[in-house]
Amino acid sequence: KLETSLTYGLFHQFNRTACEVWDRCDGSHTVLQMAEQLVEAYDVDLATAVADVVAVVRQLHTLTLLQCSDG
Fold first, then answer.
1. 3-state class of 30 per DSSP?
2. Which residues contact 14 (CB under 8 A, 6 or more apart)?
3. pLDDT tens for residues 14-62?
4. Which whole-number Å values give the CA distances from 64 to 4, 7, 10, 25, 54, in the listed order?
């Protein structure tokens, strides 16, 4: 999946896990909920799924594709 950043005119290519996380970064899913969905979809344990979700969210934030809120 390719995603564009209109602010910087860049294209970003996501792997399958990153796509799953990106699609759920809508403010209505917690990290744990996203991880639980990865556990259901793939052969992965919860601890690994949580670590993967956190890593993807951090990377999306670093790339300024995602802004985290306190709410």
1. coil
2. 1, 2, 3, 22
3. 888 888 998 898 889 999 999 999 999 999 999 999 999 999 999 888 8
4. 11, 9, 11, 13, 15
pTM of the model: 0.79
Cβ neighbour number for residue 33 with a 10 Å cutoff: 12
| Residue 45 DSSP symbol | -
Q: Which residues are bridge partners to 34 per DSSP? A: none
